[in-house]
From TrEMBL:
Pfam name, any one: MS_channel_1st_1
Biological source species: Myroides odoratus (Flavobacterium odoratum)
Location in or out of the cell: Cell membrane
GO CC, alphabetical: plasma membrane
Gene3D superfamilies: 1.10.287.1260, 2.30.30.60, 3.30.70.100
Residue span(s) of domain Mechanosensitive ion channel MscS: 105-170
Boundaries of every Mechanosensitive ion channel MscS C-terminal domain copy: 189-247
Protein name: Mechanosensitive ion channel
Recorded name of the encoding gene: mscS_2
GO molecular function (one): mechanosensitive monoatomic ion channel activity
Keyword Nucleotide-binding among UniProt keywords: no
Transmembrane segments: 15-36, 56-77, 89-118
Membrane topology annotation: Multi-pass membrane protein
Length: 255
């Protein structure tokens, strides 16, 4: 019984002696999180003031955030009495296992670095990749965030993006639209083409140069397929496609 009382007393004394370390660690945690937040705000203001590319600044801010968090974790661990040298040794011993288990994450990080360096797209660009089309909202350390036309947010792994085909739809201001139109073979082909070209030339959203073209793509027994080619600004692409389909149907029905 005396031995149990001695052990209990010893544990209580150690716990009381350890309380200042816990309180100090909590204070460091609160102060550290505040410093990290302020550092992020200041860094963001500096990058904005110097007109640094938003894609690059977003990625750098993410790297700084995780770097500061790891540093704060090491400081708190040291304050709690955990030997930093032992901590580093443990991290070193676990690095191989972690590297093997997180191959995908490391690949995504490397992919993010490649995206920042080679800039296949930037924040605000509209891209098509991995079967998804949308506007780039942000580029993080491990993934790229886009929003599609249905306003759904999609996260694409950077590793996959950097090693696959990416179509940057908005990188050039101008875009050629190609719309397939089909009519009955009995329709007056030349008259259909002439009237459709008149409609295309009268639309102010369609560029006059290069000139719009209506070409015959395929002839079947009862159908004829045209390809309508026009140049437009990126912002007018969808509206012009709709216009072409509507006018083609109206002209075909009138013939």
């Amino acid at each position: 019984m005396e031995k149990f009382d001695h052990l209990l007393t010893s544990y209580i004394e150690n716990a009381i002696a350890y309380i200042p370390h816990i309180v100090t660690s909590l204070l460091i945690l609160g102060l550290g999180l505040w410093v990290i937040k302020m550092s992020q705000t200041i860094a963001r203001r500096i990058m904005t003031k110097r007109n640094i590319d938003p894609t690059f600044s977003s990625f750098i801010l993410d790297v700084l955030l995780w770097g500061f968090r790891i540093l704060l974790f090491v400081v708190i661990a040291s304050k709690l009495g955990i030997q930093t040298s032992s901590f580093v040794a443990i991290i070193g011993a676990m690095s191989l296992a972690i590297g093997l288990s997180l191959q995908g994450s490391l690949s995504n990080f490397a992919g993010g670095v490649l995206i920042i360096l080679f800039k296949p797209f930037r924040i605000g660009d509209i891209i098509e990749a991995q079967g998804e089309t949308g506007k780039v909202l942000s580029i993080h350390i491990f993934s790229t965030q886009i929003v599609n036309y249905q306003n759904s947010v999609i996260y694409l792994p950077n590793g996959v993006l950097s090693n696959s085909k990416i179509k940057n739809i908005s990188q050039n201001n101008l875009r050629r639209s190609e719309v397939l139109v089909q009519t009955n073979l009995t329709k007056n082909t030349n008259l259909f083409i002439d009237q459709l070209l008149e409609e295309l030339q009268s639309n102010d959203k369609i560029l006059s140069q290069p000139k719009p073209r209506v070409l015959i793509k395929e002839l079947l027994d009862t159908k004829i397929t045209y390809v309508v080619q026009v140049w437009v600004d990126n912002d007018n692409f969808t509206a012009v496609n709709s216009f072409i389909l509507l006018k083609s149907r109206e002209i075909s029905d009138a013939l």
